[in-house]
Amino acid sequence: RPRAAAVWRYAMKTVLLTGACGGIGSAVARALDAAGHHLLLLDLDPLALEALDDGLQGDHTLVPFDLWRSGFDAYVRLAGLIQEDHGKLDAVINLAAVCGGLRPLAHADPTGWLQGLQVNLTAPLWLFQTLLPLMQAATAPRFIVSLHREHRTQSAYWHSYGIAQAALTQLVHDLYQEKHAYPNLGFAIVDPGWVDTPLSRSVFPAGQPHWQSADAVAPHYLAALTGDSDQLEHYP
């Protein structure tokens, strides 16, 4: 029995990946593709999704979807389409994020504030709510979020992005504490640290020598995908 469970953990999984065309998202997509998983690649730009898919080996599902402007009913419809086509989800990996540079909260513009909260905080919750039946249909599903420790503990000048990171941390802990309602669902937090991505460069254009490449942190997400602990897991 343990051997069968171990074999299953490394079998092909159906994984929804948000922010698939981002710096970390595309690296994780390549790593999951190389491992033989079937990916539902979710991002805003259909052309960027097609370009990403052209560089992958597997037959994946492209999901052009606007996490910012879509209402909750659109998330419900998305879940319905995934139900029709796939019947289950083995994992959801949340990598979509928006930031928009550093500024004091006093200077945060209303649209940027709302967009940051929607994409970075509310979207993961709405995806969890609408996709929960699909995850429960899987044998040992995983809900994975990406969080940066520095943004959780020192969010000054990071406006809605930093506040959303702190709130998302609490959200994941609350979802985990409520897991008696969905006992087969595993939770994991991946902290990639500073990574050289377009989002990081939008804040610090010159970059920093200690930043890692997106390909270097992608294995953390694969490890989170194959975890099997009942605890809220943290990677690395």
List keywords for this structure.
236 residues; alpha/beta; seven-stranded parallel beta sheet; 7 strands; 14% strand; disordered N terminus
Write the topology of this structure.
Elements: H1 2-9, E1 14-18, H2 23-34, E2 38-43, H3 46-54, E3 61-64, H4 72-86, E4 91-94, H5 110-136, E5 142-146, H6 149-153, H7 159-177, E6 186-190, H8 198-203, H9 214-225, E7 233-235
Parallel strand pairs: 1-2, 1-4, 2-3, 4-5, 5-6, 6-7
Helix pairs in contact: 2-9, 4-5, 5-7
Structure explained in plain terms:
The protein is built from nine helices and seven strands. It has 236 residues and is an alpha/beta fold. Strands 3-2-1-4-5-6-7 form a seven-stranded parallel β-sheet, sandwiched between helices. Strand 4, helix 5 and strand 5 form a beta-alpha-beta unit. Helix 2 packs across helix 9 (214-225) and helix 5 runs parallel beside helix 7.
Task: Summarize this entry quickly.
The chain is built from nine helices and seven strands, in the order H-E-H-E-H-E-H-E-H-E-H-H-E-H-H-E. By secondary structure, it is of the alpha/beta class. A seven-stranded parallel sheet has the order 3-2-1-4-5-6-7, with helices on both faces.
Number of helices: 9
Q: How are helices and strands ordered from N to C?
A: HEHEHEHEHEHHEHHE
Strand content: 5-15%
Rg from C-alpha positions?
A: 17 Å
Helix proportion: 40-55%
Read across the widest sheet, the strand sequence of neighbours is 3-2-1-4-5-6-7
